[in-house]
Amino acid sequence: MQENYLAKWLNGDLNEEELKEFKNSEEYPTYKRIVDATTDLKAPIFDSETSYSAVRNRLELNGSKIVKLHPFRNFLRVAAAAAVIMVGAYFYLNTLNESISTAFAENREISLPDTSTVILNADSNLSYSKRKWEKNRNVKLKGEAFFKVAKGKKFTVTTDDGNISVLGTQFNVENRHGYFEVSCFEGLVSVRFNDMVVKLEAGKSFVAINGEITEVGSPNESEPSWLKDESSFKSVPLKYVLDEFERQHDIVVTTENIDVKQLFTGSFSNSDPKLALKSISVPSQIKFKFEGDKVLFYGENTP
C-alpha cells in the first residue's frame, strides 16, 4: 500500500482502483474502526484563511519574503482530520474492554491482570476492563467458565441471571438461556440471585432453571467434568443436555416426538460424537439419525 493512501482516503481523493487496494490492505480495518469510533467527535473550529493571513502578516512585519504555498490549505485539512483521528484513537483505545470468545467445540484459557486464570467452555464470552482492573475487578460472563482465583484476590463475576463474589477460590459458572449454575470447588463463593444471597462452600452447587431454584447433587470432583472432555448432568432437563451436545461437537440438533423436559442424569464424551449420541439416547430411550454435521433425535413411536 502506498504511504499517501491514508491522507488521500481521509480527503476522499482515492480513485476506484486505489480505494479497492486500500481496503484490501492489513491496515484498513484498524483505520476504519478508529474512524467509526470517532464519528461523534468534533474537531475544534479551524479557520484556515484566518490562520494563513495571520502567518502572512507576521512575516510581513518581520520583513521576510512571503512564498505562496499552494498545498498549504490541503495540508491543513489533512492535519485537522488527522487530529480528529488521533483524539478518537486515544479515547477508543483507552475505553476499550478486553473481550474473549470461544466458538462451538472450542475451549480457551485466559490470564486476568491479577494472575487469576479463567478457562472458557465452548460458545462463551468473557469481558473486563484491563486498564481499570484495580478499581473495578469485575468480569462479565456469557456461557460457561471455570475460575481459579489467585490467593488473596477478589473480584465479581456478573451474569444475566446473577452475580458471584469471590476471594481466592475455584469455582464454575454456567449461564445459558434459562439455566444458571454455580459450583464451588475450593474456598467460599457468594451467589446473588434475585433478592437472595447464597454462600457456597467447597463441594456445593446452586442451580436455577427458568428462574426456579432446583436441588441438585454436589460436585465430587476437584474440577468440572468438561475440563476432562466430558459433560455431566444430574437431573437436568434433556433440552439443556442436547444444547450442550450441540455446543461441544458443533453439530446441529433437531428433535421430533420426544419430551425435552424429561430429566437426564448421566454424561457424554466431548471428543467422540458417536459415543456421546449413544450415551444420551440409551438412558433417555430415544433414537437418533446422524448425518454429517446434523443429528435428529426422535421418539420410539415416530413414523
UniProtKB/TrEMBL annotation:
One of its GO terms (molecular function) is sigma factor antagonist activity. The chain crosses the membrane at residues 75-93. The keyword Transmembrane helix applies. Residues 99-189 form the FecR protein domain. Keywords: Membrane, Transmembrane, Transmembrane helix. Residues 232-296 form the Protein FecR C-terminal domain. This is Uncharacterized protein. It comes from marine sediment metagenome. The lineage of its organism: unclassified sequences, metagenomes, ecological metagenomes.
